Structure formats: C-alpha cells, structure tokens
Amino acid sequence: MYLKIIVRNIIAAALISTTVGCASIVSDSKYPVSITSTPSGADFELTSEDGIYVESGVTPGHVTLKSGAGYFDGEKYLITYKMEGYSTTKNTLDTEINNWYTFGNLGFGGLIGYLIVDPATGAMYKLAPLSHTTMYPIKT
C-alpha cells in the first residue's frame, strides 16, 4: 500500500516537473531595476526596443521591467538621461539568458521548459538590477 503511494507520488512529481519551465518557477519575467546617474536629479525616459514609451522619472529611480518581448525574444530598453547644463546621455539595458533557464531545465523543466514555457513567459531572460550613467557638463 505504501509502495503504491510512493510510486504514485514519484510519477506525479516527474509529470509536473516536465510540464513546467524551471526559470518560470524559480525566477520571474519582471525585474526591479535602479536607474541612477552622476550627478543625481537627471530626468530619465525608458523606451522599448520598438521605440514605445515605457516609463520616466528622476534619478535615482526604480522601475520594474519585463524581460521578454515575445517568444524567444528578450527585451532591450533605451534609457535617455537629460539634465539642464549637461549633455544628454543614452544607455541600453539589454537582457541576458537566465541561468535558471540554462541549467534548471536540465534537471526540472526538460524540453517543455526549454522550448515552450520559459521562452513564452519571458522567464528565460533576466535584466541587470542597475543602470548608471555619468553625465558631463556642456562646455560653453
């Protein structure tokens, strides 16, 4: 009787682990990012790789950004910094492959995690927690 229960639980665990993506379980598809500048107090604006407005604020600021732009497509953001008396600066914030996607699916998610769940949810990508720029005064 106990053997039946143990075998049933092992089979259930195996089925569950092959129908989900590891990165989707362990991490997220949205990441908090701090936006900072030297000097602080600069206005910033984020746009997506498609040029769509995402968010704006003043440094130091905090935003939460999606890491995925579509199936097997990580998002890339352009951050434009502006401050009176300083030259406008632009930074790119690009995604990287999430280690949970790379290695976690070997043990837990399997092919379904690699090819369907994590790419579709955007969890296969991650964003750096900080984007910083140094702004330089305009010489007159």
Short description:
With 140 residues, the chain is an alpha+beta fold.
Can you tell me about this structure?
It is a single chain. With 140 residues, the chain is α+β, with helices and mostly antiparallel strands. The protein is built from 3 helices and 11 strands, in the order ααβββββββββαββ. It has helices at 2-17, 22-26, 99-121; strands spanning 30-38, 43-48, 53-58, 61-66, 68-70, 73-74, 76-82, 89-94, 96-97, 125-126, 130-134. The strands form 4 sheets. It has a 4-stranded antiparallel beta sheet, with no helix packed on it. Strands 4-1-11 form a 3-stranded mixed beta sheet, with no helix packed on it. Strands 5-6 form a two-stranded antiparallel ribbon. β7 and β8 (89-94) form a beta hairpin. The longest helix is centred in the last third of the chain and has 23 residues, at 99-121. The model is unreliable at 14-26 (pLDDT under 50).
Low-pLDDT ranges: 14-26
Can you tell me the overall shape?
elongated
Kindly state the mean pLDDT as a whole number? 79
Please count the beta strands (DSSP E, at least 2 residues each).
11
Gap from first CA to last CA: 86 Å
Give the radius of gyration.
21 Å
β-strand percent reads: 35-45%
Largest beta-sheet characterization: 4 strands, antiparallel
Number of helices: 3
**Order of strands in the sheet with the most strands?**
3-2-7-8
Helical fraction equals 25-40%
Reading the helices and strands in chain order gives HHEEEEEEEEEHEE
Structural class: alpha+beta
